[in-house]
Amino acid sequence: MPNRKTKKKADLIITKGILLTLAPGSVPIQDGSVAILGGRIAAVGTTSEIKKSFLAPKTIDARGGLIMPGLVNAHTHAAMTCYRGLADDLPLMEWLNQFVFPAEAKSDGDQVYWSTLLACAEMIRSGTTTFCDMYLFEDRVAEAAKEAKIRAVVGEVLYDFPSPHYGPIEKGLEFTEALIKNWQKDPLITIVVEPHALYTCSPDLLKKCRSLADRYGVPLKTHLSENQGEVEEILNKYGRRPLDHLENLGLLSSPLIACHCVWLTEAEMDLMARRGVRVVHNPESNMKLASGVAPVPDLLARGVTVGLGTDGCASNNNLDLFQEMDSAAKLHKVHRLDPTVMPSQTVLEMATLGGARVLGMEKEIGSLEAGKKADVIVLELNRPHLQPVYNLVSHLVYSATGADVRDVIIDGKMVMEKRKILTLDEREVLDQARQWGERILDSRNDSTACP
Ligand SMILES: [Zn+2]
Fold first, then answer.
1. DSSP letters of 224-283?
2. DSSP code string of 44-90
3. Residue 29 CA: distances (Å) to CA of 62, 382, 401
4. How far is the CA of 316 from the centre of ligand 1 (A)?
5. Which residues surround ligand 1, an ion (CB under 5 A)?
């Protein structure tokens, strides 16, 4: 039996919790532990196994809790936390054109920075350890995420019209390339090329985005077929449905991350499966904007990779992936009048390994396995809405909320301990949120006063 000297070194051990690694084929370990070294998982196993082999200066006692992988929010616009509740109950195009785009035209880097910190606090509190972002001033998003010590995949939103950030589109492509170069090899931040949508990006811009992404081996991501009007617009403009339009432009040659994918034909879904298009499902945003119900069960049946996203806070209106899982499971059941579709295990996988696969990060995150990055959360189970436990996965999808998350470790570092976020001054972030809210209201009142 190894003694103190022969034990292996770890930085941190999370111990004595129910361990759900979510590694394919794994089963829960009733008294489990995770050893972490150098930002990665050194080993997972029973508490006695880990105790025998590892010694660490810090131990997290997870008794009465569940140890599991951090959640992956595969599509959001983090900085839109500052517009939460500003305009609700409107159709997508009216919402975008009358509220979102005019408000965003007045935004700046500082607003994006503080609103992203607010989003990071909300995501950390609700167990998200990786988010994929699309917005303006993404250098400031990367800066905020880095400060909060949360894993982020960030991309500047690109479209034909001038951006309040970079101005003309050529500058947007240059800016994206600079972002890629600046953040290469960063342990937390990676970059994605993000044309906004087919109806806001010309074929020429889409092709430029594809070639930029391929040149650096980074993913390409866009909004796709979110609502019916958008599909009609593409049909009228190009004589093809969105997926055929992309195929015709040669843009499906390498994997594309497509967000929403609500309005698809059978032929489009077959093409997506053939071309390895990865999908991000955003059920709450689709419900709130009445965009429709994405045919996720049909995509999964074809073997398409699907992850889960909250979309931005203005169309959700929170970043809690536990709630999103609940909505994802129930939406498809009621839509198909079939309670057997989208079982909890499928939905939980979408929020973890599925999201990691969508982002091309499945070798690094999405499950707790030796060698992977140590992105781990501990959930408290000793709560009225979580006892007794018959089926952990069912509890995670249908009963738990983000507020049940107690500890968060990202890249091997403690980011939240006993519900205290260690990387951010949460009071300052909340003060700033209130101040930005007042400024946003003032500037909106100014512009409505002057015709
Ligand atoms: Zn979106």
1. ES-SHHHHHHHHHHHSS-HHHHHHHTTTTSS-EEEEE--S--HHHHHHHHHHT-EEEE-H
2. EEEHHHHHHHEE-SEEEE-TTEEEEEPEEEEEE-GGGGGGTTTS-S-
3. 13, 17, 22
4. 11
5. 311
What distance in angstroms lies between residue 77's CA and the mean position of ligand 1's atoms? 6
Compute φ and ψ for 2, nearest 5 degrees.
-65, 140
CA 98 / ligand 1 centre spacing (Å): 17
How remote is the CA of residue 48 from the centroid of ligand 1, in Å? 45
What does the DSSP 8-state code read for residue 162? P
In the chain the first and final C-alpha atoms are separated, in Å, by: 80
270 Cα–ligand 1 center, Å: 24
Distance 312 CA to ligand 1 centre (A): 6
* One-character DSSP codes across 285-341: HHHHTT-----HHHHHHTT--EEE----GGGTS---HHHHHHHHHHHHHHHHT-TTS
Burial, 34: exposed, middle or buried (Cβ in 10 Å; 0-12, 13-18, 19+)?
buried
Rounded to the nearest whole angstrom, what is the distance from the C-alpha of residue 115 to the centroid of ligand 1? 16
Between the CA of 347 and the centroid of ligand 1 the distance, in Å, is: 20
Share of the chain above pLDDT 70, in %: 97
* Distance from Cα 311 to the centre of ligand 1, integer Å: 5
User: Distance, CA 198 to ligand 1 centroid (Å)?
Assistant: 13
Cis omega (within 30 of 0) for bond into 388: yes
Using the mean position of ligand 1's atoms as its centre, give its distance from the Cα of residue 133 in Å. 9
User: Which residue intervals of 79-189 are DSSP H helices?
Assistant: 92-94, 101-105, 109-125, 138-148, 169-182
Distance (Å) from CA 156 to ligand 1 centroid: 12
CA–centroid distance, 134 to ligand 1, in Å, is: 7
The pLDDT value given to residue 1: 54
CA angle 169, 173, 175 (to 5 degrees): 105
- Give, as one character, the DSSP assignment of residue 363: T
User: Tens digit of pLDDT for each residue in 283-304?
Assistant: 999 999 999 999 999 999 999 9
Contact in structure between 400 and 371 (CB atoms under 8 Å): no
Phi, psi for residue 175 in degrees, rounded to 5: -60, -45
Question: Each residue of 317-362: pLDDT tens digit?
Answer: 999 999 999 999 999 999 999 999 999 999 999 999 999 999 999 9
